[in-house]
From TrEMBL:
CDD domains: DEXQc_UvrD, SF1_C_UvrD
Positions contributing to ATP binding: A46, G47, A48, G49, S50, G51, K52, T53
InterPro entries hit by this protein: DExx_box_DNA_helicase_dom_sf, DNA_helicase_UvrD-like_C, DNA_helicase_UvrD/REP, P-loop_NTPase, UvrD-like_ATP-bd
Keywords: ATP-binding, DNA-binding, Helicase, Hydrolase, Isomerase, Nucleotide-binding
Composition bias, Gly residues: 715-726
Protein name: DNA 3'-5' helicase
The organism of origin for this protein: Microbacterium ginsengiterrae
One Pfam family linked to the record: UvrD-helicase
DNA sequence: CTCTGTTTTTTTTTT
DNA sequence: AAAAACAGAG
């Protein structure tokens, strides 16, 4: 099809073509096409590191500069809030103030924004709350118990998973019940729980994560007039990471890109997936849609991402233009060759080869440790070596498959005094004390949310237990009032006077906070209300006092966390002077792991490979490259599982600009039990000549002698039996030697070396000789840092240069 | 109702 | 190994 642009880009006029020159400068022909093409639908297939963010921002800037679109007509969807912020900033650099009116956000944030405006249409209020997966799990857990569903083999986790999956497919309990085998009692109970769950959410004036998308689609379909206002508004829709959209998100995009007809058609065609239907005479054509993605980087099938959304884009949008970006501007050729080789083993993909003109670069470094601690030590040493060679810590990253793997790395990093930060894991907002604080806020903002009120009922301990809780719930039911309102009449609950007083006290605090944060008399509260209200709640409820009075050392940290949370609220007030409590809660509910990545501090980033998507670093360490980890054991059974794992590994590899390290351990402790780990099958998919094995799986085998470690056992050429020479192993330079011979199998395996130890008072000075449990004897070169963070720089006789945190290192002065 | 000690489960990835 | 769930005493 010939691409006659619907709108000719940047014709004459005050904003002439020369305005575009800087936007188009330095682009290759494909990138140029991706920026300048105009038409109803455009698919940009963007391989890793092919400059897609730059293309996307320039495309937006180009639309704005040529006056083809007002900022308010642009909706750009990114994968994380962090990515959204970055894109806003980059567009801002290109077009200045015009960047303001655009919607650049995640699917979830955009939907919250729409729902807050339109919630009243279908029985919610604009102060609805958002349940994160922990909240919905708690609710489901209660329902499972009430329905005694465990008797049918339904666990909270499985129910939650199934409901989420169904919602991603835009199913509700009724539509599911129609096709389900209802003679199976387990199915019947499941449907009941699903329906109940939905009822409770509605009663609590709350949406879960999946509802944010699904209910927005429902809203658009049930209220075409509402949908039309958004269709008229957004004329250019751009979606990043399109390969990771699920069906609900796909449907949302379709709803938004429908043509708007002058006469709103009443019964909405329920088969309405075909959007360019000729029979209506549209008053306005559908919005132009640009999607960017790479099916090789689709790693979210487990949460409903449907790779067909991208692979069948051309069928869904007939006449769509497709642009392929294959030149990689990020990595060296060695890294790309490895990536290409790995991903080439996936069979059902369009062949696509990334290439680079940056030269071969360094070889990939491989290392096999005896244990996960040994592996971590390798990473720490290598990080230090790179840092000494001039690479900032912030340009290095360590990836792993599962969050639990971070522990061993963290231990060694602390001991080696390597600055690091962990992205994700137990997130700040999932800590119990923060969730408690949030529950207090929600109880004020959305009193209908019974879950939150119940949560704070006995936090801090007020002597209110199960019995009282049930009594309150029954009273509320009988009187037809909400759980929250029942708290205001403690004397009628039929509980003892002591407990009445406790309930009355809680009610008074909540009431006071409500008066402060949501003043009845339409006056505008100062920006700091959220922070002030939060402080008030925490202080007057006795929550902080209880923590301070406790002698559990963890509670000290909890107080600090709460202080930080209040600081977050103050920060929020500064950035959003008009932000309401609902805005604050939204922001908190939607922050993701990748979002709190800020590169201003110089520390090594540690994260899962999933979190790593969309990021890049000079040096990357992919750890735990073992069978049962990557590919993960659980994925082996799932259809398409191993393929998705391979894509995940591919994502990890392609994050690296200059140096890539692949490491594994030969034993790994899991569940508190040590087991033998085998090298990942993905390792043999990388051509041997690309990898410089410092210590190969074969080497380690010949020492450990458990069995044939199956790396490459079935490959004839290049790889072979257990002979280390076949791996091209180089002897380690003494300085880089990681594992002294004496610490081989017998000493290193799985020793939890980070046990409680306090050398706080140990005085060391340059010139002192010391002995270290693992590294042997050495001489102190220098001591830096203060107090608990004093660091000894030690030159070990056998193990080379190390940094040690004096307070906890297993050392003694000689 | 709360505290303490014991048993069981957990680790796949996330907006 | 650590967190969560559970059971029983006070």
């Amino acid at each position: 099809m010939t691409e006659a642009p619907l709108i000719v880009p940047s014709t004459a006029g005050p904003s002439g073509p020369q305005d575009q020159d800087d936007l188009l400068a330095g682009l290759n022909p494909q990138q140029l096409a991706a920026v300048t093409y105009r038409g109803p639908a455009l698919l940009i297939v963007a391989g890793a590191g092919s400059g897609k963010t730059s293309v996307l921002t320039r495309r937006i800037a180009s639309l704005l500069r040529s006056r083809e679109a007002w900022p308010s007509q642009i909706l750009a969807i990114t994968f994380t809030n962090k990515a959204a912020g970055e894109m806003r900033e980059r567009v801002g650099q290109l077009v200045g103030e015009a960047a303001r009116g655009m919607w650049i956000s995640t699917f979830h944030s955009a939907c919250v924004r729409i729902l807050r405006r339109e919630a009243e249409h279908f029985g919610f209020t604009k102060s609805f709350t958002i349940y994160d997966s922990g909240d919905s799990r708690a609710l489901i857990k209660r329902l499972v118990k009430e329905h005694e569903a465990d008797a049918y083999g339904l666990t909270p986790a499985s129910v939650q998973g199934r409901i989420s999956k169904l919602k991603n497919e835009l199913q509700d309990s009724e539509s599911y019940a129609r096709d389900a085998n209802m003679s199976d009692p387990a199915e019947r109970v499941f449907v009941e729980i699903f329906a109940d769950y939905q009822r409770r959410l509605r009663k609590a004036n709350a949406f879960d994560f999946d509802d944010l998308i699904g209910q927005t689609v429902y809203l658009f379909r049930a209220f075409p007039k509402v949908a039309d206002t958004y269709r008229r508004r957004f004329r250019h829709i751009l979606v990043d990471e399109y390969q990771d959209t699920n069906h609900a998100q796909y449907a949302l995009i379709h709803e938004l890109t429908r043509p708007v007809s002058a006469d709103a058609p009443d019964p909405y065609a329920s088969n309405g997936m075909m959007i360019f239907e000729p029979e209506t005479t549209p008053e306005l054509a559908g919005a132009s849609l640009t999607v960017v993605g790479d099916s090789d980087q689709s790693i979210y099938a487990f949460r409903g991402a449907d790779i067909r959304n991208i692979s069948e884009f051309e069928r869904d949008f007939p006449g769509a233009k497709v642009v392929l970006l294959e030149q990689n501007y990020r990595s060296t050729q060695n890294i790309l060759s490895a990536a290409n080789a790995v991903i080439g083993h996936n069979f059902d993909r369009k062949d696509k080869k990334l290439w680079s003109d940056r030269g071969d670069g360094d070889k990939i470094v491989g290392f096999t440790g005896y244990s996960q601690h040994d592996e971590a030590q390798f990473v720490a040493d290598e990080v230090e070596a790179l840092h000494r060679a001039g690479m900032p810590y912030s340009e290095m990253a360590v990836f792993y498959r599962t969050n639990s793997q971070s522990r061993a790395l963290e231990e060694i990093f602390i001991r080696s005094a390597v600055p690091y930060k962990i992205m994700g894991g137990t997130k700040f907002y999932e800590r119990a004390e923060i969730k408690d604080a949030l529950a207090y806020l929600i109880s004020v903002a959305n009193p209908a949310d019974e879950m939150s009120v119940r949560r704070i009922l006995n936090k801090p301990r007020r002597g209110i237990g199960d019995v009282t809780e049930t009594a309150i719930a029954r009273f509320a039911d009988d009187q037809g009032i909400s759980f929250r309102d029942a708290l205001s009449m403690p004397s009628q609950l039929g509980v003892g006077p002591k407990i009445q007083a406790a309930i009355g006290q809680l009610d008074a605090v909540l009431t006071e906070a409500t008066a402060l944060m949501l003043p009845a008399s339409g006056e505008v509260p100062p920006p700091t209300v959220v922070a002030d209200g939060l402080s008030l709640l925490l202080a007057k409820s006795g929550y902080l006092d209880a923590l301070r009075a406790s002698r559990d050392p963890q509670d000290e940290a909890r107080v600090e966390n709460l202080d930080e949370f209040v600081a977050v609220a103050r920060d929020f007030a500064r950035n959003n002077p008009e932000g309401t409590i609902a805005d604050f809660l939204t922001e908190v509910a939607l922050v993701s792991d990748a979002d709190d990545l800020d590169d201003e501090s110089g520390s090594v980033s540690m994260m899962t490979m999933h979190t790593a998507k969309g990021l890049e670093f000079d040096a990357v360490f992919v750890t735990g490259v073992e069978e049962d980890l990557i590919p993960h054991r659980i994925s082996a059974g799932e259809p398409g599982g191993p393929q998705e794992e391979r894509r995940l590994f591919y994502v990890g590899i392609t994050r690296a600009r200059k140096r890539l390290h692949l490491s594994l351990a030969m034993t790994r402790a899991q569940f508190g039990e040590v087991s033998v780990a085998m090298p990942s099958r993905f390792l043999q998919e990388i051509p041997a000549e690309l990898v410089d094995w410092r210590q190969s799986p074969g080497d380690v085998n010949s020492r450990g002698g458990t069995q044939s470690r199956a790396l490459n056992a079935r490959r004839g050429g290049g790889f072979g039996g257990s002979g280390g020479d076949r791996f091209g192993v180089k002897p380690l330079a003494p300085r880089d030697r990681i594992t002294p011979l004496s610490t081989a199998m017998d000493k290193f395996p799985n020793k939890v070396t980070g046990k409680v130890r306090d050398n706080g008072d140990l005085e060391l000075a340059a010139g002192d000789r010391i002995r270290h449990d693992d590294f042997g004897e050495g001489r102190v070169d220098a001591v830096t840092g203060e107090g608990a963070k004093r660091i000894a720089h030690v030159r070990f006789d056998a193990a080379g240069l190390k940094k040690l945190l004096i307070k906890i290192a297993p050392i003694e002065k000689l």
